[in-house]
Amino acid sequence: VKAADPSFDETGFLDGAQQAYRMFYDALNTQDEAVLKQLLAPRLEKRFLLNIKQLQQQGQRQRFKVAEIK
Description:
70 residues, mainly alpha
């Protein structure tokens, strides 16, 4: 990427990717539909929201824990 765009900031890109990753899993854990809508493409958003609603109807919920990002 750096060859195509000399101003590419690898550290900034990786930091942003880690933040988005954490935001995604935090939104799943809290079932924050607004955040999921911001982070996911429409097809994925529909699938995740449907899954959340199905689990809610069954009295269940998923929990995710990010152990480490390298």
